[in-house]
TrEMBL record:
This protein's name: DUF4359 domain-containing protein
UniProt keyword list: Membrane, Transmembrane, Transmembrane helix
TM helices/strands, residue ranges: 25-44
Species the sequence originates in: Nostoc piscinale CENA21
Length: 169
């Protein structure tokens, strides 16, 4: 005595009605979530605006020592270069709140940092003076051979920026 239950329909509620109700139940929460989240997002943006993404602009510069140039003259050129780079960094990038500039000097093949300029935008706006905000490296004078002329200067080959030509056989 086995009954075949596979083809029997429900005697309580028809399947067609149940499938229509479940579609309505699925659509209602979706619509509710979409339309209720939009006002919440707008209120959150009005109450707490987006954060500004500010950062420090970093610049590394290398200047060459001119022939027969002393340390003080090179230092003044480095200060002028740092002052111009700081002003240019603040002018070009509105989101930069701080500027960090390191000026290095190349002398007889040796390269060493001579000064570091670290300044914020309000500080620079109040006093745009590189000497005021610069940190000077005391050992640069001896590292760059300003105290004596090296007997055997290092010759550095120029850097070739052109791609080498290729030959096809």
């Amino acid at each position: 005595m086995t009954k075949n239950v596979a083809n029997q329909q429900s005697s309580i509620i028809s399947f067609l009605f149940i499938s229509q109700v479940t579609k309505q139940i699925r659509i209602f929460p979706l619509i509710f979530l979409l339309f209720s989240s939009l006002p919440v997002w707008i209120v959150a943006e009005i109450i707490s605006p987006q954060m500004v993404r500010a950062y420090t602009a970093r610049v590394d510069l290398i200047i060459d020592r001119l022939p027969d140039e002393n340390y003080e003259t090179t230092l003044r050129r480095a200060e002028a270069t740092a002052r111009a780079a700081a002003q240019r960094s603040f002018d070009q990038d509105i989101l930069a709140t701080d500027v960090s500039i390191i000026v290095s000097v190349q002398s007889y093949g040796a390269i060493a940092p001579i000064l570091a300029l670290e300044v914020s935008r309000p500080q620079w706006r109040s006093r745009p003076d590189a000497q005021l905000w610069a940190t000077y490296f005391k050992t640069a004078r001896s590292l760059l051979f300003f105290e004596q002329t090296p007997t055997n200067p290092v010759n550095i080959a120029p850097i070739n920026t052109v791609a080498p030509a290729t030959t096809t056989p």
